[in-house]
């Protein structure tokens, strides 16, 4: 059966999330990436801003010179991560074979799904509509027999596009396009190929394989296949997480033990929620501290029984923290993680009434948080963060958005 591979990518992702929240920004040149006086670069530019030559990676100072009327927004990563998770959840409703590539992009294998939706085209129309209705975002999609052609097609169809390349048309679809459109060809390779007189993908596909290999080594062969529209790489869903962690850097280095413990409790609860959502338990807790002088330590503890309760994550983390704090150096970063994950066979703790009650409590808290937001219910320990950080539905907006995985 001919494969049908979908590549999907959200349009101007960070900017579109901001526009959804603030409709006044719609139809205007908008840049996410910080203040124009700052030293940062453009992360995402609206299509109106792109008309002025703005693009991702451009220094903000250049961007504001080229387009002084652009609206610059600092952006908020947790918000984008939440939108990304919801995007991936919608994709999972359409195919069990989803390979995410970063936050706003994925491959789906839809081979054989015509029978469910009428056609793959129809399937994608429904998919795009759900993303619009539920997320208020636009996606562009390419459909082809392999990943490379699907990706080129979605890129070419932007914004709000849908482009299907029929089986057998891969080579002729790619042929007229400039070589820079082929994934894997960076600036350096483009210059080298241009110097060899190659400017289109069609010309590249006609280059003798031996020439390509002598210029580019092993990648010459891949280049040859991709330029000819041949790509039989599978869509690979990600391997399950081996560890889950969250960390944050403080706005100011701190020796405040109450703040350190409250932050540890909060980060531990985030880890616990993630752990339970994945249906896992852990046996190993790791604490990470980075001091003001940038020395970093990690301390781990392995327990006899696998567990998934916030209380045990925190109690173990706190024990490790208290030992580490004897060092009296100001702390720059704190993090907590769990590893050694196992599937949570339910009823592990049926004989232990305290563990059973903790489990029930955690599930009740998870349900409330999923419905009303993370900070809707809090333990006494984390209340102190209320005065320090703004709250969002996803949780506290910490000083640095580096709640990492
Ligand atoms: P992209 O999909 O490359 O860009 P985009 O979604 O803004 O625009 P489009 O797809 O319509 O061309 O990247 C997705 C997000 O990743 C983007 O919104 C912001 C972030 N990003 C950066 O932070 N830095 C970068 O250099 C790039 C390319 C993206
Ligand atoms: Mg995008």
In short:
This protein is an alpha+beta fold and 405 residues long.
Q: Report mean pLDDT, rounded to a whole number.
A: 91
Structural class: alpha+beta
Contiguous helical run count: 15
Q: Main beta sheet: strand number and arrangement?
A: 5 strands, mixed
Note the beta-strand portion: 15-25%
Strand arrangement within the widest β-sheet reads 5-6-1-7-8
**First-residue to last-residue Cα separation:** 38 Å
Sum up the overall morphology in one term.
globular
Bound molecules: thymidine-5'-triphosphate, magnesium ion
Calculate Rg over CA atoms: 25 Å
Let me know the number of strands: 15
Q: What proportion of the residues is helical, as a percent range?
A: 40-55%
Q: Order of helices and strands, N to C?
A: EHEEHHEHEEHHEHEHHHHHEHEEHEEHEE
Low-pLDDT segments, ≥5 res: none
């Amino acid at each position: 059966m001919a494969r049908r591979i979908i590549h999907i990518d959200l349009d101007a992702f960070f900017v579109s999330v901001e526009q959804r929240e603030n409709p006044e920004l719609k139809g205007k040149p908008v840049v996410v990436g910080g203040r124009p006086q700052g030293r940062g670069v453009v992360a995402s530019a609206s299509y109106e801003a792109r008309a002025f030559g703005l693009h991702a990676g451009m220094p903000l100072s250049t961007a504001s010179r080229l387009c002084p009327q652009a609206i610059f927004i600092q952006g908020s990563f947790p918000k984008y991560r939440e939108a990304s998770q919801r995007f991936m959840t919608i994709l999972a409703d359409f195919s069990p074979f989803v390979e995410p590539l970063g936050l706003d992009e994925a491959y789906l294998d839809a081979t054989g799904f015509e029978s469910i939706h009428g056609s793959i085209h129809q399937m994608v129309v429904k998919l795009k509509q759900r993303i619009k209705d539920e997320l208020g975002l636009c996606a562009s999609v390419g459909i082809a027999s392999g990943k490379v052609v699907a990706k080129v097609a979605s890129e070419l169809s932007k914004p709000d596009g849908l482009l299907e390349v029929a089986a057998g048309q891969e080579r002729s679809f790619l042929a007229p396009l400039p070589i820079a459109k082929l994934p894997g060809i960076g600036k350096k390779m483009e210059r080298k190929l241009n110097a060899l007189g190659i400017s289109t993908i069609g010309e590249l596909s006609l280059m003798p394989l031996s020439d390509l290999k002598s210029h580019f080594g092993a990648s010459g062969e891949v280049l040859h296949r991709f330029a000819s529209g041949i790509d039989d790489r599978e869509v690979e869903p990600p391997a399950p997480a081996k560890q889950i962690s969250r960390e944050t850097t403080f706005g100011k280095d701190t020796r405040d033990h109450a703040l350190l413990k409250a932050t540890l409790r909060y980060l531990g609860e985030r880890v616990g929620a993630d752990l339970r959502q994945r249906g896992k338990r852990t046996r190993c807790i790791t604490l990470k501290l980075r001091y003001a002088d940038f020395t970093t330590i990690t301390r781990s503890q392995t327990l006899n029984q696998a567990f998934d309760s916030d209380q045990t994550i925190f109690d173990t983390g706190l024990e490790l923290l208290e030992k580490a704090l004897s060092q009296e150096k100001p702390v720059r970063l704190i993090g907590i993680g769990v590893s050694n994950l196992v599937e949570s066979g339910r009823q592990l703790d049926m004989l232990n009434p305290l563990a059973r009650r903790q489990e029930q409590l955690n599930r009740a808290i998870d349900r409330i948080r999923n419905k009303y937001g993370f900070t809707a219910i809090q333990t006494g320990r984390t209340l102190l963060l209320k005065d320090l950080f703004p709250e969002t539905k996803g949780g506290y907006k910490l000083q640095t958005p580096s709640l990492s995985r």
